[in-house]
Amino acid sequence: MSYKMVWLRLRKDMGALIGLFLVIVTIFVAIFAPFLAPHDPGTQSLAERRARPSKEHLFGQDIYGRDMLSRIIYGSRTTLIAGVLCVLMSGIIGSFLGLCAGYYKGSISTIIMRTMDLMMSFPVFLLAILIVSVLGPGLVNAVVAVAITTIPSYARVVRSSALTLKNTQYVEAARAMGASNLAIMYDHILPNSAASIIVMSTTGVASAIISTAALGFIGLGAQPPTAEWGLMLNEGRSFITSDPHLCMIPGLAIVLLVLGFNLSGDGLRDALDPRLK
Predict the structure, then answer these.
(1) Closest CA to 119 of 90, 162, 140
(2) In 104-238, where does DSSP find H-type helix?
(3) Contact 263/18 with Cβ under 8 angstroms?
(4) Domains and their CATH numbers in the chain
(5) Fewer CB within 10 A of the terminal residue: the chain, N end or C end?
């Protein structure tokens, strides 16, 4: 299916267009954060701690008197980068393992998939907490932990595609012409699995954002004074009744961005499905 056809089908899906709009706006804000932020996100004003929204500070100020709007804007960078890095790491490693497990038979496939099954036997977030506890708190370690926990999902999807595609006529023809196993996997099987990987990666960014924000919320992810939405939720949770804006604003930012990626992923799934007209 051509890119033009995918776009024509995608543009008819209002939910997907709304999701793309939310994602594009967030990316724009993240790229131009230094120009859009009205204040330095790290500048403190202890005399104005937990100040309510005003003309000068549209989203109010946090527990250290820092401008909430500026921290939300800069936090979009941290949140997006963390989510995308998680998907890149897990997608590359998981796809490679899935290709090997689906194309090769015997002990290679058995070892890979039993390892994936073992990892999937643990609740994803608890496994991420365990990994971060071993590596130590921090945003980089949180990204690594979340990426590790999502590797099995990509491995299973790509393995399923590889099992189906390795017996197709064009793969048999390539094998008869002397193509190596590596060439067949990367020239024929992987490109034909791309649609599933793209859709899974889009929704995977949303899951990774939630997981990294959750780790930041419990103190295992981004550390102060980093502007990160999960950490901002943690800093404001003690004042949720007296100063609800400290939690509501970063929470709403997470919800909108995750909604954007989920709607985009659903739209891509429908647009890339040849069975749907």
Answers:
(1) 90
(2) 107-120, 124-135, 139-165, 169-176, 181-184, 190-192, 194-217, 229-236
(3) yes
(4) 3-34+60-272 (1.10.3720.10)
(5) C
